[in-house]
Amino acid sequence: MRVAGFVNDSITDGPGFRFTLFLQGCRRACPGCHNPDTWDPSGGSEMGAEEIFAKIARNPLLSGVTFSGGEPFLQAEALLPLAQKIKAAGLELAVYTGYTFEELQGLPEALPLMAEADVLVDGPFVAAQKSLELRFRGSANQRILDLPASLQAGRAVLLTDPRWTGEG
Length: 168
Ligand code: SF4
Description:
The chain is of the alpha/beta class. Helices cover 26% and strands 21% of the residues. It binds iron/sulfur cluster (SF4).
């Protein structure tokens, strides 16, 4: 897969210490995007699932892994074996995407990766709705979704986990 970079112990992409993988490639060109270097699908560098998972397994303090970007779902097939290893290791998996949950439901290639992940932070970054008050999100249109519950219900279900919402 094409990778823009990674952070071994992020505290901004979900609760606890997280390994955040930034995937290379995005077609959205959101005005105000923080990572325009990730847009070119042929940029970044090539990394395999084994190589990335070895880095994750080396950190015993991780509470989860986050796929961000770029647009992770452009490489959904390549990410699937890595997602499966992460879940088998008992780690929470979150995916940040510029697609909405409703859009992803219409993309057959996205569904296997969605089935592995626990949390989906969905929707494009909208500069007009940007707020620094938002926990783990850049703009107010983005939602933090309980992915298993959403897939089961066939509609977007907001996550209620206080580690993510900061409420309760
Ligand atoms: S979806 Fe994310 S990476 Fe892509 S342009 Fe928008 S903010 Fe940037």
